[in-house]
Amino acid sequence: MTDDPRIVTTARGTRALLPETEGHDTLDIPALDAALTLDIAAHKRRRRIDGIRSVLLRAGAIAALVAATAGSIAILAPAPAHAFIFGPSIVFDPTNYGENVLSAARALEQINNQILSLQNEAQILINQARNLTALPTSLLSDIQANHTRMQMLLRQAERLAYDVQSIEQAFQQSYSGFAAGQTDAQLVDLARSRWQDSVQAFEHALQVGAGAVGNIEDRQSQTGRLVDASQSAVGALQAVQAGNQLIAVQSAQLADLTALLAAQGRADAIEQARHAAEYEQAQEQFSRFMSGTPYQPQPVRMFGN
């Protein structure tokens, strides 16, 4: 409490310091209430203006951050219809400000979508580059070398080789047409020639079989390398190329098997032809023997008697 007569308490419970008055002994309470109301309203208005300024500063900082992230965003808006004026140079339009913030957010979202789209396109290009990457492993030269080696073995076939004309000529000379004009010595030479053909065919079949067996280890190594390359392929092209080379290895194995069967079949055919020719020659020799001069007994002197 105080004894100062200038401090009074109104009906609202508000204490106020009255100005000094001259010549007035009485206090006008209604006028005092009105003055206090005006002071309170002015104080509230100042606090509201300070709050709005703080909000504007924070909003300005957020807008600057959005503009820096999204790039240069030019926002052209019409003059606000309802704006708040704070001081001589501060004008705030809530509607325009909200639209600008929404526009900036949409622009930022579009930029993010564009960045994501570019990332997806870059990933697609990377995948396409991987799919077009060639296989670093190539066994074509090894496969061709095995083919060449097997062909050389097949060309080593002598006498009755893998040629239609030479086979026909040899059969006409040695395996058929045992005419009566051939001498016994000639028949013996033909039989010896057929026997040599058969022996050489069996020897050649063994050589081809040895070559095919020798290629098994190479085929296994090639298959393992190609399977490893296929498992570690980075793209579709590498996988396809590894598969093609695996097919080439299998084709080489089939070629070895074909050569082996051909060599064995040649040896068996020559041996069977030899037996047939020997049978025909035996008939010719027996016919000659039966049609020759009959046996005439001759006296024989033994022990000098």
What does this structure look like?
The chain is mainly alpha-helical and 305 residues long. The chain has helices spanning 29-70, 94-131, 140-155, 164-175, 184-231, 236-291, and strands at 7-9, 15-17, 84-86, 90-92. The strands form 2 sheets. Strands 1-2 form a two-stranded antiparallel sheet. β1 and β2 (15-17) form a beta hairpin. α1 packs parallel to α2, α3 (140-155) runs antiparallel to α5 (184-231) and α5 runs antiparallel to α6. The protein starts with 6 loop residues before the first strand and ends in a 14-residue tail after the last helix.
Task: Count helical runs.
Answer: 6
The largest pleated sheet is described as: 2 strands, antiparallel
* Strand neighbour order, sheet with most strands: 1-2
The backbone outline, from C-alpha atoms, is rod-shaped
Order of helices and strands: EEHEEHHHHH
Structural class: mainly alpha
Q: Which spans of ≥5 residues are poorly predicted at pLDDT below 50?
A: 21-27, 70-83
Seen as an oligomer or otherwise, the chain set is: single chain
Q: What is the count of β-strands? A: 4
**Integer average pLDDT:** 75
Terminal CA distance reads 193 Å
Approximately how much helix is present in the residues?
Answer: 55-70%
Radius of gyration: 59 Å
The share of residues in extended strands comes to under 5%
